[in-house]
Amino acid sequence: MLQNSIRGFSKKRPVTSSDDTLFSLEDVSVTFGNLKALESVSLDIHQGEILFVTGSSGAGKTTLLRLLAEQLKPDSGKILLPKDLIGVRLFISQVFQDLKFLMNKTCEENLFHSFDKKVYKNKKIFLGEMNDLCKILGITDRLHLKMEQANGGLKQKVALIRALLAKPEVIILDEPTGSLDVDNARKIYEVLSYYNMKKKLTIIWASHNRELVKEFTGRIIHLDSGKLVYTGHACFI
Ligand SMILES: Nc1ncnc2c1ncn2[C@@H]1O[C@H](COP(=O)(O)OP(=O)(O)OP(=O)(O)O)[C@@H](O)[C@H]1O
Ligand SMILES: [Mg+2]
After folding, report:
1. Ligand 1 pocket, 55 CB below 6 A?
2. What is the pLDDT along the chain (237 residues), one digit of tens a residue?
3. CA 60, CA 149: separation in Å to the nearest integer?
4. Distance 55 CA to ligand 1 centre (A)
């Protein structure tokens, strides 16, 4: 069901934007010792948008994501989060590079951990969505593997599915396709694009691979040595 809806979905999606600001950074800098990881960055992120954060290694992508996820505070400047801007603490799923799993459990058991009675009416609905996502991302036949046996690509897919099953309002992804080939990266985008359109999921996706994200619909911001040097829609570059 979900599977049929998602297939080919991204091809149909228009460029969307919204005026509801969820995150606002004003002249934000983050310093580690003498190093400016982010320098005077000003940026608004809107509800329901897909934002790609690009830049080469060390450009400051993860640092920016950590600010948004409240893992870091700026050394100067101002950052406003959803709780400040819309008065609600939104549920934000995070998929960072240091993926954390129950390593001696299987992929499937790790996914079961996302089941929350407060989020799903019953386990059948949860399992239906979980199985659909596993099929779409092509991991059904590897769900029995222990996490410690899983390769990087499988781990990234399990982490993404786990994050989506928690039904977040915002998802923050740090290099979610770093271990995947282009076709698999496109599948990940297609799934996320579906959740963006159908469930108004706000997506913040960091990638060093600008060529890849240029294929996708969304807004790109580009960081260079901690400075925000470009902002614009991916399809117009
Ligand atoms: N906790 C930290 N302590 C010291 N330096 C840090 C810390 N976190 C990041 N840095 C430095 O800040 C700069 C920006 O790092 P960041 O991880 O944000 O870059 P990135 O764009 O995510 O890079 P990559 O593509 O390699 O993940 C780098 O020079 C990095 O070494
Ligand atoms: Mg990084």
Report:
1. yes
2. 576 666 656 555 544 444 689 999 999 999 999 999 999 999 999 999 999 999 999 999 999 999 999 999 999 999 999 999 998 889 999 999 889 999 999 999 999 988 999 999 999 999 999 999 999 999 999 999 999 999 999 999 999 999 999 999 999 999 999 999 999 999 999 999 999 999 999 999 999 999 999 999 999 999 999 999 999 986 665
3. 31
4. 12
Paired tokens of 147: 């996490």
The whole-angstrom separation of Cα 18 and Cα 48 is: 7
Ligand 1 pocket check for 192: Cβ under 6 Å: no
Is the CB of 153 within 6 Å of ligand 1?
Answer: no
Please report where in the chains the tokens 């950074």 appear, as a residue.
25
Assess contact for 174 and 97: CB atoms under 8 A.
yes
Domains identified in the chain, total number:
1
Q: Give me the CATH number covering residue 185.
A: 3.40.50.300
Q: Please indicate whether residue 66, judged by its CB atom, sits closer than 6 Å to ligand 1.
A: no
* Domain span holding position 131: 2-236
